[in-house]
Amino acid sequence: MSERDDHWGDLLRRANRGDRRAYGHFLIEVTPVVRNIARARSADAPEDVEDIVQEALLALHDKRHTWREDVPVTPWIYAIVRYKAIDARRRRGMAHHDIADLAEVLADDSAGDIMASRDLSQLLGGIDDRSADIVRALGVTGESAGDVGAQMGMTEGAVRVAYHRALTRLRKLVGANEAQ
User: Fold this and answer.
1) What's the pTM value of the predicted model, to 2 decimals?
2) N or C: which end of the chain has fewer CB within 10 A?
3) Are both 101 and 26 inside the same structural domain?
């Protein structure tokens, strides 16, 4: 996991156990990232950015108990912001957005890794939890197969095999969704 994800995960974990100071630090630290994602997702409606930020922060607060402590927190945050931005676009009657308009923002590391969380939770919901956790760890947060194996009680080779099998299942899911 990334250092930032570890830190945010620790803050949210402590916050979920009642540490108000940790929760305050968590909100202060994630807000600029939430704002960058909202700004990128609403490039054609900059007046919506702060509304999206507020809705996303409220959703993070309301749904913080749904975050699974054994998975990275960053993709969970990104998904919530993404869905709030989509909701705002729908309210404005602009549900479709060409990704080419976001090319400059996507190349900007400060805007957050928007594409990493794009439909991730929905897609990973189509495979078993262990495989989804392996894909998140190796494919999203960049952990090594050895580290993931140690965490999950698997050999490094078994993690790699499980990762490739999970990717194959995900490709089939994507293909099935595109055929519909």
Assistant:
1) 0.51
2) C
3) yes
How much is the average pLDDT of 115-140? 76
Question: Where does a domain end: 118, 136, 161?
Answer: 118
Q: CA of 25: how far to CAs of 19, 29, 77, 110, 158, in Å?
A: 10, 6, 15, 19, 38
User: Which sign, positive or negative, has the C-alpha torsion 97, 98, 101, 106?
Assistant: positive
The boundaries of the domain holding residue 143 are: 126-180
63 plus 8 within the same structural domain: yes
pLDDT of residue 46: 78
How do residues 15-30 score in pLDDT, each as one tens digit? 999 999 999 999 999 9
The total number of structural domains in the chain stands at: 2
